[in-house]
């Protein structure tokens, strides 16, 4: 049976990491060998201390600084040698079949051209979360920056496939990085995640590069996990927005050329903060208004530093 190396990047996840590891321990028989590598990005809450052994080999890598998701994931991936990699968020819990079903599909004739698998994600209410997305075009990113995807979803579809109930298997553009099941051969062929994305868009970038290399992404509705969503970023919305917009700009500059890259950059830098501010004030959310300008203020400052505008 092909093995799985699970990589979990942790940053101040509290008790969620322990719950995630316990859920993995319940599924040890679904893959052999099975190893878990926790890469801790300089947490200060003790969440990576005294971790429970999940009935399979566990290693913990402690970084002295927060290296970001992509770089930490690549570091964890290099620790193993199994045929498959599973990048897993610490705010997830695996249900029975979450390992065996993707593994069986990837080993089947049907899955031989698939490089990445995702599974059904259940939220805190027990509902099925929308966890698959479409590759963005420049026009969609401009529209989303202005909030037009909420007003005119027929013409400017949102990033996530909200119109589909996620109740059946399907080929998709992208599955979210909370459960990112990848062939190691594909991961190594593409050189892993692009470490220039500190957090956000690294999974989208990887999926696009995989598609261009001839590897598809597949969503499997029969395998399930619980995903809290947002993780610790729920508590730091300004920082989350800063990283999200920074990665969006990097994605546009990497994958779009000429006028398309310019239009996305202009919309994100000049119009998106105004649109977000108007939305926050219209809803009577002064905290969200303040977070918006804190995030974009930090973004403007970071873009003025040498090297930040390169691809």
From TrEMBL:
Molecular-function GO terms, alphabetical: transferase activity
Residue intervals of the Glycosyltransferase 2-like domain: 6-110
InterPro entries in UniProt: Glyco_trans_2-like (IPR001173), Nucleotide-diphossugar_trans (IPR029044)
Pfam families, per database record: Glycos_transf_2
SUPFAM superfamilies for the chain: Nucleotide-diphospho-sugar transferases
Domain of life: Bacteria
UniProt keyword list: Transferase
Record flagged with keyword Transferase: yes
Family matches, as PANTHER family: RHAMNOSYLTRANSFERASE WBBL
Protein name per its UniProtKB record: Glycosyl transferase, group 2 family protein
């Amino acid at each position: 049976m092909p093995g799985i190396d699970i990589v979990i990047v942790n940053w101040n996840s509290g008790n969620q990491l322990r719950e995630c590891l316990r859920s993995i321990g319940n599924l040890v028989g679904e893959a052999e060998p099975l190893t878990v590598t926790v890469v801790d990005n300089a947490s200060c809450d003790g969440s990576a201390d005294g971790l429970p052994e999940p009935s399979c080999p566990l290693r913990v890598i402690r970084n002295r600084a927060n290296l970001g998701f992509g770089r930490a994931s690549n570091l964890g991936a290099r620790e193993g040698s199994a045929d498959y990699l599973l990048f897993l968020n610490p705010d997830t819990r695996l249900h029975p079949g979450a390992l065996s079903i993707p593994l069986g599909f990837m080993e089947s004739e049907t899955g031989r051209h698939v490089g990445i698998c995702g599974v059904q994600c259940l939220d805190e209410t027990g509902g099925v979360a929308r966890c698959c997305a479409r590759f963005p075009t420049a026009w969609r990113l401009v529209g989303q920056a202005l909030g037009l995807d909420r007003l005119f979803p027929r013409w400017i579809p949102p990033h996530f496939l909200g119109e589909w109930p996620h109740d059946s298997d399907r080929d998709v553009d992208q599955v979210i990085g909370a459960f990112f099941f990848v062939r190691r051969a594909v991961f190594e062929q593409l050189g892993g995640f692009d470490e220039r994305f500190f957090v956000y868009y690294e999974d989208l970038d990887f999926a696009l590069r995989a598609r261009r290399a001839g590897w598809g992404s597949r969503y499997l509705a029969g395998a399930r996990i619980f995903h809290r969503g947002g993780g610790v970023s729920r508590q730091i919305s300004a920082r989350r927005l800063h990283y999200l917009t920074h990665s969006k700009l990097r994605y546009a500059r990497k994958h779009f050329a000429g006028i398309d890259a310019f239009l996305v950059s202009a919309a994100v830098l000049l119009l998106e903060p105004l649109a977000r501010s108007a939305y926050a004030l219209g809803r009577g959310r002064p905290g969200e208004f303040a977070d918006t300008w804190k995030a974009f203020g930090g973004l403007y400052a970071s873009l003025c530093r040498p090297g930040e505008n390169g691809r």
